[in-house]
Specification:
Helices cover 25% and strands 42% of the residues. By secondary structure, the chain is of the alpha+beta class. It has two domains: 1-30; 31-153, Lipocalin. Strands 2-3-4-7-8-9-10-11 form an eight-stranded antiparallel beta barrel. The protein is globular, with a radius of gyration of 18 Å.
Length: 154
């Protein structure tokens, strides 16, 4: 009887989290910071970032379906490549390319990247959260902030 009660309690806790996850996947909307926190994501500190980022190989997935790849070199530089999707009035075309850039860690605990693509400059900073074996970056710490998915490996 007690074992059944424990299982019921765990299921009551697990079902809302699973429904939230399914809703995010099925609606195609980006994971928000509130979603990540509901799934027990942990924010990386400045110390965590300083251990993880130098020499890390980075894979960045955009909401538009592009994948970008680079390595955080120890001198703060990077060379990025992309299979960037260009949404134009003629449809979606793949515009593969490479560019030079820089990366760093801000005192406030954000991972910052600037990349000079041939057609545009990209400059951003993200608070990084770990959720299982994935990472998500958020521009702000507001609960509604949408997240971008990252992979970091050495």
């Amino acid at each position: 009887m007690i074992a059944l009660s424990i299982i019921e309690t765990r299921m009551r806790l697990l079902v809302p989290v699973l429904l939230l996850f399914i809703a995010c996947v099925c609606t195609g909307r980006a994971m928000t910071l509130a979603d990540a926190k509901a799934r027990n994501a942990t924010q990386l500190s400045v110390v965590d970032l300083k251990q993880l980022m130098p020499g890390a190989k980075v894979v960045s997935h955009t909401d538009e379906g592009s994948t970008r790849v680079w390595e955080n070199k120890s001198n703060g530089t990077l060379v990025a490549s992309t299979d960037s999707w260009d949404a134009s009035s003629f449809g979606r075309d793949v515009l593969a390319g490479a560019a030079h850039g820089r990366w760093g860690i801000g005192e406030e605990g954000r991972y910052c990247v600037s990349i000079e693509w041939s057609s545009a400059s990209e400059n951003w900073c993200r608070y990084i959260f770990r959720l299982g074996d994935k990472y998500y970056g958020f521009t702000t710490l507001e609960r509604s902030a949408p997240g971008s998915e990252f992979e970091f490996s050495k």
